[in-house]
Design brief:
about 290 residues; alpha+beta; Glutaredoxin; 2 domains; five-stranded mixed sheet; four-stranded antiparallel sheet; 10 helices; about 45% helix; globular
Amino acid sequence: MKFLRLSFFLCLVVFAFQLTACAQDEAVKPTMTNEQIAAYIRKAFNVPANVNITIKENPESKIVPATYPIMVQFRGERVNQDQEAWVTKNNVLIVGRTFDMSVDPYKKNLDKISMANVPVTGAPDAKVTIVEYSDFQCPYCSQAYVTVKDLLKIYDGKIKVAYKHLPLSNIHNWAEDAAMASVCVHQQSPEVFWKLSDFLFTNQKSITKDTIGTQLQQFSTDNNLNYEALQKCIADPATKQKVSTDSAEANSLGLNSTPSFVVNGRTVVGSLPEDQFKQVIDEALTAQ
């Protein structure tokens, strides 16, 4: 649910004179408090009471002159959205996005992605890197799983795929459990991680919150994993933090649904048909 629509260009027109007039002022903080700004946004955009609104200063976004840059965070059972905004010192709210055209947007995306300790399959020296943000319980992700496996065969030697976690725990009750287990499996054996991925997506419909523990134990036995070490790893807070870090990274890229992909810096959202995904890859290969 999109509470705030992009209206940056309209805002620039409406507030151009205001911004110019106060461009030289150093004190740009509004007189309204963050709580008052949140209360205004709730009324102006008709945000339901069961959605929490938090206002935080956004120091990374200082492109709009003479304003107080903020990030508006919406959190609820089915809502996880961040929205850039700016407030002038006389309490004018500007909603939208800014674009610094001196920075390549694909490179900007790639700079946000960490490839440390990430499961990767495909050609190590591939020209195209696909970073996938996924959820093992998501039915659309299981469709994308089949497509990605086919693409790895079609583009053998030309692409590689990195898997990252974006479990939608508010609607998928065992997705985070599976994500944490996969982090720990990857620590024990990077090769077996991909077997676990196959197992989870293939058996997605038969896995439940109550049975996933038993199924993971059997999987560990079948693949010669140390199940005791696996349990300790899953219980380690650092494992959950790893999953949270992946999810935060996805959100920083504007991705909050699954599956989502970043193809050489280009964001792609949803389980695309194979032909459409091939077009994205072909364009990335041509751009080399």
